[in-house]
Write a structure and sequence with these properties.
Helix content of chain A: over 70%
Low-confidence stretches of chain A: none
Number of strands of chain A: 2
Helix content of chain B: 25-40%
Radius of gyration of chain A: 23 Å
Radius of gyration of chain B: 20 Å
Mean pLDDT of chain A: 86
Largest sheet of chain A: 2 strands, antiparallel
Order of helices and strands of chain B: HHEHEEHEHEHEEEHEHH
Order of helices and strands of chain A: HHHEEHHHHHHHHHH
Oligomer: heterodimer
Number of helices of chain B: 9
Structural class of chain B: alpha/beta
Number of strands of chain B: 9
Mean pLDDT of chain B: 83
Strand order of the largest sheet of chain A: 1-2
Largest sheet of chain B: 7 strands, mixed
Strand content of chain B: 15-25%
Distance between the termini of chain B: 20 Å
Shape of chain B: elongated
Structural class of chain A: mainly alpha
Number of helices of chain A: 13
């Protein structure tokens, strides 16, 4: 009996440790694989070609700027939808709604987060895109806007559930102190609760951005995939092609080791770097906010 | 065309379990090259064998024999409410290359043109680029207009055209549902404007169609002869129609 316990004591912590390290190992392996497959692009493709305004890989036009601008445009659009909606919903659930409403709303929002993105894509093609075309009198509804609206919808549950947790964690004493000073409910939320939960709310936004920029299926279905360089604000009303959709659409048919294959991996590196920057800035902000909070409390 | 070859091989092997057919994809050039090197018995190709390839085959002591086994037509499609019902190849080329941007320039309503295309990795995309955009001219470097929507599937194109009167698209004739309008195409302004149908594809009056070939090493014998005869018979030609290609009417081998 005793020896069995010892044996378990020996094995289980090590297993758990291995699981923990495996995450790091996988990320590092993926990153090295991406670098190995993608970096030769810089040698094989002249830099001028990468900054070509045209993406047409079967004729050696490898301009990746239209793809980057497409991804950024759709993501920024998605955040314009997801941030106000997400934080608004979180504030409502955590601060305003009565208990029973809250107990219905929260699981519902989480259910929304579990919707397969391909289903939202279908909705986009069949309902949203035709509606946008008629409502805004556009040549076609398959635009960056359709992608942004759907991606916003996909990011809302992520933003809501994390922001709501953060608001929930704000000590009740903060609110009571505000009310005692005669602040209205709105003043309390805007001036006290939200700032106190700032780091969590920022994490929510960052994770929402990560979710949007990496989403593939929905954007491939609804944004029209035309690789046009999006430089004007009105580009939101025209079709765009994102980095993720490009990789998904083209990787299956490309000859392994060809220039086109390398460039697709290079796009993967760019995508990886963008999400890395988003994640690092998120943790940096949280770290800073934490230090400040600790200072205040001590 | 690899789908067709696979479907044929699979169906044939259920009738003749003693025959083993292995199919390899990779494009027409790959197949013909393998034929020239003597590594395969027959090669499927969606283009005619080139003169230099015939020379090379003869140098290797191989006499390739050509059979047309099916045809492939690309239909140009628009929304049923679009008044435009005929276009020349040149007009379609100008629409897709971005020179024509409004339906009124080709006799339609004052609406912007939304161009739809398959993704660049589709064989149909490349065929359309070479035959229509570049009008079959080798040194023509016309490209698709940058704002051409590249949709990942036939369904995507059909869905968009079904609800968008601005849209124009193209797809294999077999994929086009009846509720969309197919454009009659002419090679020159003088006409005639021809709709793609099995009969017009087979008598070659419809310009955006190509033959699909099988090449054999010398006059086919034994099992290969039997296989080629079966391909030209009704069962195999039904498979052709099911996969969205145009069955041939002639029985020539």
């Amino acid at each position: 009996m005793n020896s069995k316990q010892n044996w378990q004591e020996f094995l289980i912590p090590r297993l758990i440790k291995a699981c923990g390290y495996s995450a790091i190992v996988f990320v590092v392996l993926i990153f090295f694989f991406l670098l190995r497959e993608g970096l030769p692009t810089l040698v094989e493709v002249p830099l001028k070609s990468l900054f070509d305004p045209r993406w047409y890989p079967i004729e050696e036009h490898f301009g990746i700027l239209p793809l980057i601008s497409g991804s950024l445009l759709v993501t920024v659009g998605a955040m314009l939808v997801a941030v106000p909606f997400g934080i608004g919903t979180a504030v409502f659930i955590s601060e305003i709604a009565p208990r029973w409403v809250r107990e219905i709303l929260k699981p519902l929002v989480e259910l929304l987060g579990g919707l397969p993105s391909v289903m939202l894509g279908f909705l986009g093609i069949l309902v949203l895109a035709p509606f946008l075309r008629v409502f805004l009198d556009l040549p076609t509804g398959l635009t960056a806007l359709a992608g942004s609206l759907l991606l916003g919808g996909i990011a809302v549950p992520t933003v809501v559930s994390i922001a709501e947790d953060a608001l929930d964690a704000v000590p009740r004493g903060y609110r009571e102190a505000a009310w005692a000073l005669g602040a209205t409910k709105w003043q309390t939320i805007w001036r006290v609760t939200l700032p106190a939960a700032r780091s969590g709310v920022l994490t929510a936004v960052m994770l929402g951005i990560g979710r949007s920029i990496g989403e593939t299926m929905t954007v491939m279905m609804v944004t029209g995939n035309a690789p046009v360089l999006a430089v004007k604000l009105t580009s939101i009303f025209s079709p765009v092609r994102t980095m993720t959709a490009t990789i998904a659409a083209e990787m299956g048919e490309v000859a392994s080791g060809s220039v086109h294959y390398r460039v697709l991996f290079f796009i993967g590196i760019v995508l990886f770097l963008i999400s890395l920057v988003v994640n690092i800035s998120a943790s940096a902000m949280i770290f800073r906010a934490k230090k400040r909070a600790e200072r205040v409390l001590s | 065309m690899v789908n067709l070859a696979l479907a044929w091989a699979e169906a044939y092997q259920t009738i003749r379990p003693d025959v083993r057919i292995s199919v390899t994809g990779g494009g027409s050039g790959t197949g013909i090259a393998a034929l020239l090197n003597g590594t395969v018995d027959i090669a499927n190709a969606s283009r005619k064998i080139k003169p230099e390839e015939i020379e090379q085959a003869q140098a290797n002591g191989i006499e390739p024999v050509e059979f047309v086994v099916a045809r492939d037509a690309i239909a140009v499609i628009v929304h049923p409410d679009n008044p435009v019902s005929q276009l020349t190849l040149q007009q379609i080329s100008d629409i897709y290359s971005g020179k024509i941007n409004n339906w009124s320039e080709v006799g339609g309503e004052d609406r912007p043109i939304v161009r739809l295309s398959r993704e660049t990795n589709s064989g149909t995309h490349v065929y359309f680029l070479e035959t229509v955009l570049r009008l079959g001219q080798k040194d023509n470097k016309t490209l698709f207009s940058m704002d051409t929507l590249l949709l990942p599937s036939s369904e995507g194109i059909i869905n968009e055209i079904r609800q968008n009167p601005n849209a124009i698209g193209y797809d294999g004739l077999g994929y086009v549902p009846h509720d969309l309008k197919i454009i009659a195409v002419a090679e020159t302004e003088a006409g005639p404007y021809v709709l793609p149908m099995i009969s017009t594809v087979n008598d070659k009056t419809y310009p955006i169609a190509r033959d699909l070939y099988v090449y054999s090493v010398g006059q086919p014998q034994g099992v290969i002869q039997d296989y080629l005869e079966w391909i030209h018979a009704s069962e195999a030609q039904e498979i052709v129609a099911e996969l969205g290609f145009v069955p041939i009417l002639v029985h020539n081998p």
